[in-house]
Amino acid sequence: MFIIDVTNPLTLILLLTATVLLIFLGKEIKRPYAPAFALAIFLVFVVIHSVQLASLNSVNSEIYKSTLLGCITVDLIMIFITFFGYLWVDDIACRFYKKKSIDNSLDWFWKQV
């Protein structure tokens, strides 16, 4: 079974770097599409890893199970980071283009901090 192992430290560093670069690219061009692309990729990773976890057979299942659970955990953490990056860039884009934001998505977060 082929697994996209995102728990490997080198892969994790490359994914984190690419995610941060996409968030800052979205900030510079003032479009939330770049972080949304990263968010979609991590959502696809979660679905792929979940399907692989559900379709495990008994051959080497413990090794694959622990790897897939780690991959799903990393994917969910990256979704969390990317989602807040998307909300941040969306807020910047709304202010720049003087568009009315529907719900001021990050105000509740910054008031709690």
Key structural traits:
113 residues, elongated, mainly alpha, single chain
Describe this entry's structure for a reader.
The chain is mainly alpha-helical and 113 residues long. It has helices spanning 9-29, 33-54, 61-96, 107-112. The longest helix is centred in the C-terminal third of the chain and has 36 residues, at 61-96. The mean pLDDT is 88.
Which term fits the overall shape?
Answer: elongated
Mean pLDDT equals 88
Unreliable stretches: none
Cα distance spanning the termini: 44 Å
Q: How can the largest sheet be summarized?
A: none
Helix content: over 70%
* SSE pattern, N- to C-terminal: HHHH
Number of strands: 0
Q: What is the count of DSSP helices, taking H or I runs of 4+ residues? A: 4
Strand content: under 5%
Which structural class do you get from the secondary structure elements? mainly alpha
Radius of gyration: 17 Å
Tell me the layout of helices and strands:
Elements: H1 9-29, H2 33-54, H3 61-96, H4 107-112
Helix pairs in contact: 1-2, 1-3, 2-3
